[in-house]
Amino acid sequence: MTTPPELRFRLPDGAEAAVSVHTLLNGGYAGRNQEDVAAHVAELAELGVPAPDSTPAVYPIAPYLAMQTDEVPAQHGRTSGEAEWALLVTGSRPEDVLLTAACDHTDRALEVHGVAWSKNAGPDVLARNAWRLTDVADRIDTLTLRAWAGETLIQDGTLAELLSPQYWLEFLTGHGLRTEGVALLSGTIPMRPGADQFAGQWRVELGDPETGASIGLGYRVRRLPEFTGK
Fold first, then answer.
1. Contacts of 136 (CB under 8 A, 6+ apart)
2. Under DSSP, is residue 184 helix (H, G, I), strand (E, B) or coil?
3. CATH code, domain carrying 123
4. In whole angstroms, what separates CA 188 from the centre of its chain?
5. What is the total count of domains within the chain?
6. 195 is a domain residue
7. Contact residues for 195 (Cβ-Cβ < 8 A; gap 6+)
């Protein structure tokens, strides 16, 4: 039996929380304004990306793809990340739900054949710091979410644009999944028009304007050598 990956997070009070992820879920098409989401689905369909049966969507991901890493290997040049937040359930108490920054690294060439396939072709990179959700719940919509591809800021928004952590906690509870070892990524905010997402480095930052604190992650994308054998 495969051992679930253990992730460790530093908390603002200096404590450390650890969780072995056995269930990893990615939210998709998770904008709070679902009319805008429907328009986005139609745009993607014109590019050949299959539309989900309904929105928001939830994609089960192989749990070993939940990683805290500085490097992501890629088979070709059409892979990229997405700025997201993640929930980690580390226990049964309300304060055992952690919020952190995340980046869903996706194979865009594979995406036209299946979104779930493309998300399982790359890792979900998580930051090494986290906040207790209970500590920021009263101002959750003001938290900022940004991403840089290389040195270019290509995503810049707030959590108010996405379905809330409370929405997803209710989803987990309703499906018997609000249990230790479950991780869920939020889905992403829009990219800036004309942004080039195919870069050798990615950074994501989750910020709290009220305190000035932030949680960040960054990694480089390493191209694998091309296969040359028979």
1. 99, 143, 208
2. strand
3. 3.90.850.10
4. 7
5. 1
6. yes
7. 149, 152, 154, 155
The answer as to whether 229 is a domain residue is no
Nearest to 26 by CA among 129, 171, 130: 171
Report yes or no: 145 and 216 within 8 Å, Cβ to Cβ.
no
| Biggest CA-to-CA distance, the chain | 59
Taking CA atoms, 204 is separated from 85, 86, 201, in Å, by: 9, 12, 11
Do you find a cis peptide bond into 52, omega within 30 degrees of 0? Answer: no
Range of the domain at 37: 6-223
Each residue's pLDDT, cut to its tens digit, for the chain (230 residues) gives 567 779 999 999 999 999 999 999 999 888 898 776 776 667 666 667 777 777 899 999 999 999 999 999 999 999 999 999 999 999 999 999 999 999 999 998 988 888 889 999 999 999 999 999 999 999 999 999 999 999 999 999 999 999 999 999 999 999 999 999 999 999 999 888 888 889 999 999 999 999 999 999 999 999 998 877 76
Query: Half-sphere exposure of residue 172, counting CA atoms within 13 Å on the CB side?
Result: 27
175 located within any domain: yes
CA atoms within 13 A on the CB side of 75: 10
3-state secondary structure of 31: strand
Which 3 state secondary structure label does DSSP give 9? strand
Phi, psi (rounded to 5 degrees) for 117: -60, -45
Residue 47 counted as domain residue:
yes
Q: How far apart are CA 70 and CA 118, in angstroms?
A: 21
